[in-house]
Amino acid sequence: MQYRVLCATMILAFGPALVVGQPSQEHTVLQKACDDGGARACSDLGRLYEDGEGVPKDAAKAAELRQKACDRGSARGCSNLGVLYDRGEGVPKDSAK
């Protein structure tokens, strides 16, 4: 839900160009927030890399960002990192983790 609110806020702030034809804008905003210490932003940025949305698909980068989010206290980041370990995507397969 918070993610949708963030997206709606960004659309209002930056206009329709944010969504149409410029998917990398979301990456830029999330990268800055992650660099500034935002756990949720790191987790959401990991999703972009996991899905290849606006950035090249990169499971290892997704796992790195989800780990960073988890280390910063994001339960979502930890949960999504666990899924990557379970699938062996971007990290060695380890269902115990």
**Helical percentage:** 55-70%
- Total E-strand runs: 0
Structural class by SSE content: mainly alpha
Could you tell me how far the N terminus lies from the C terminus, measured between alpha carbons in angstroms? Answer: 27 Å
Gyration radius, in Å: 14 Å
Order of helices and strands: HHHHH
Number of helices: 5
Strand content: under 5%
User: How is the biggest beta sheet arranged?
Assistant: none
* Average of pLDDT: 85
Shape: globular
Describe the protein:
With 97 residues, this protein is mostly helical. It contains 5 helices and no strands. The protein is globular, with a radius of gyration of 14 Å. The mean pLDDT is 85.
List keywords for this structure.
97 residues, mainly alpha, 5 helices
Write a compact overview of the structure shown:
The chain has 97 residues and is mainly alpha-helical. The protein has five helices and no strands.
